[in-house]
Amino acid sequence: MNREITIQPLTAEAFAPFGDVLDTEGAPDKMINAGLCGRYHDRARLDFGEGRAGISLFEAQARSLPYELTLLERHPEGSQAFLPLTGNPFLVIVALDEGGSPGTPRAFCMAPHQGINLHRGTWHGVLTPLFSPGLFAVVDRIGPGANLEEVFLDPPYTVVP
Amino acid sequence: MNREITIQPLTAEAFAPFGDVLDTEGAPDKMINAGLCGRYHDRARLDFGEGRAGISLFEAQARSLPYELTLLERHPEGSQAFLPLTGNPFLVIVALDEGGSPGTPRAFCMAPHQGINLHRGTWHGVLTPLFSPGLFAVVDRIGPGANLEEVFLDPPYTVVP
């Protein structure tokens, strides 16, 4: 069984089953500030269930390729958006659900200045910066309950360029 | 009357009357992802009134200093967070409310990798990137109503380094 995953570019179409790509591709929805600013309006399908929205900052150690993928997780109670604050690309690993477990993972590389929003319940790896500092803002659910399921992958997958 | 405003560094203490500074100053609230990622948890006082949270992207033209400040605005129905996606600093201009009008403005320069969250109703200038691309994510209220008050400043203020 092939346990090697090749990284694909992140496009809205390819990522649609997992979440939203947050970028300024195409024309803005409206111009504001006397024409000096384009607003790409309301681009994430946010869902916080019985909780509320919060903004947290994450600072993660940068990883290198090939990357050994040993864990996937999902948040059954809410969406989770990742907004890199550095202009550097991050690796995004996701999987479709197959009867309560993750299917074969897929790996995407965010372009500089892109963000993503994982829809509620999407299986994903921990967000993986490829450059230091691995700094990003996270918009996710604040509320009671664990809101976390984890699946360990044995043998692991290997993510390659 | 002095119409010149000198830019100050952005610190949580100085900015407290206006909003939250979103950065990784100090220790993380918890370590996640097997110790490889620090989570600075729930750092913004979000308030969307009768609306809901949304994530939009803004792409603004970069400005240079001295900057002529002709307009302040506020959003009476919700908070508004600004998360630069570039690692470059932005200029933030805010003012206390004095009986329904903005008082003397203050100007802050965000350090690289900082974000801010303006509390509901805080008078502010349009967010002013100092480098191109002037790209940032905005977490603000999606909902009915104008949610905007504007005050034109005549004569303008001049923001200087």
Overall number of domains of chain A: 1
Mean pLDDT of chain A: 96
SSE pattern of chain A, N- to C-terminal: EHEEEEEEEEEEEEEEE
Query: Which pair of chains has the greatest number of interface residues, and how are they split between the two chains?
Result: A-B, 45 and 45 residues
CATH homology superfamily name of chain A: Ureidoglycolate hydrolase
- Radius of gyration of chain A, CA atoms, in whole angstroms: 16 Å
What does this structure look like?
Two copies of one chain form a homodimer. Chain A has a single domain, classed as Jelly Rolls. With 161 residues, chain A is mainly β. Chain A is built from one helix and 16 strands. In chain A, the strands form four sheets. In chain A, strands 1, 6, 8, 11, 13, 14 and 16 form a seven-stranded mixed beta sheet that branches. At the A-B interface, strand 4, strand 5, strand 7 and strand 15 of A face strand 4, strand 5, strand 7 and strand 15 of B.
